[in-house]
Amino acid sequence: MAIFVSMTDNSPPLLALTCASSLEAIKRSFDLDDLEAYAPNYRMRANEKVPIIIPGIQGNSLVEATWGISVKGERTVYSIGGKQALSKRPYSILVRKTRCLVPVNCMVFASNKENPTLIRILGERIVGLGGIYSVKKSFSGMKYEMSLFETAAPDILRSVTKTVPAIFSPEKGNKWIAPSTLEEIFYRSDRTTGYWFDYFSISPDYLQKESCVAHDLQPVGLSSYEIRVRGERLREIEIGKIRQNRTGK
Predict the structure, then answer these.
(1) 246 phi and psi angles, rounded to 5 deg
(2) Number of domains present in the structure of the chain
(3) Residue 24 pLDDT more than 80?
(4) Residue 239 counted as domain residue
(5) Is the residue at 9 inside a domain?
(6) Of 177, 217, 169, 212, nearest to 63 (Cα)?
(7) Domain range enclosing 146
(8) Considering the domain boundaries, does residue 128 fall inside one?
(9) Alpha carbon 55 to chain centroid, angstroms
(10) CA of 50: how far to CAs of 67, 182, 187, 246, in Å?
């Protein structure tokens, strides 16, 4: 099983991403102009194909990329922090010139416990994870590879992981992929503290199945009734969060 190994010491690896939103929802959220083939996926892992959003002349485009940037003679890089990116080519160039967003609904991390931990952002049905990408020509067309841009995890998630990918709402994500100075890039990547998070354990079967569905992302150890009550309470929090964002109150 392929997993994503964090470059930061003592941080659990990010095992998988989910993006189960419809193509229309992604297009609407990120103001896309050009679209490649896309299919919802409840488990996207390292070395597999993931959708990424990149800027273009006419507007943003959704393309398919392999999770992991490969450089001949070196190990594949699935995630990279700012200091590492600036200290080594080609990442020092990519972080300046070719940044992308990975549209996701949630992330699944390894845990010190028996079960993996799912993390999602309250009040945001879909967010963009900051990344960098490379482009290579092949006989079949352009081949994209992507690495996530790693930043410190907010305090509320420190019991799960020390680092997370840079997280952006769709509105802020457009600024991440737009031409920017290094100062602006690092300022925007460090804004994860402004979000509300929900996290819980899910079944380890999620990692072993040939394919996954929404039910595989349910909290373990809870009855159907408890899951429903938990969901209702979280929706109340999400509604309050959305109302606060719109009114400032």
Answers:
(1) -80, -35
(2) 1
(3) yes
(4) no
(5) no
(6) 177
(7) 14-218
(8) yes
(9) 17
(10) 6, 26, 26, 31
Quote the pTM value. Answer: 0.85
Q: Which residues partner with 117 through β-bridges? A: 109, 201
Q: Which residues contact 143 (CB under 8 A, 6 or more apart)?
A: 66, 135, 136, 137
Asked whether 95 and 132 are in contact (CB, 8 A), the reply is yes
The CATH number of whichever domain residue 52 belongs to comes to: 3.90.1680.10
Q: Which two tokens stand for residue 160?
A: 């799960």
Q: Using one digit for the tens of pLDDT, what is the confidence trace for 50-81?
A: 999 998 777 889 999 999 998 877 788 999 88
Q: What angle do CA 103, 179, 131 make, to 5 degrees?
A: 30
Q: Does the structure show a pLDDT above 90 at 192?
A: no
Element (H, E) at 149: strand 141-152
DSSP per-residue string spanning 7-59: SSTT---EEEEEE-S-HHHHHHHHTEEEE-----EEEE-TTSEEEEEE--SSS
Amino acid 5: pLDDT = 46
Q: Residues for the chain: how many in total?
A: 249
CB atoms within 10 A of CB 181: 9
Cα torsion 60, 61, 64, 69: sign: negative
176 belongs to a structural domain: yes
Structure tokens at 10: 């003592």
d(CA 47, CA 220): 27
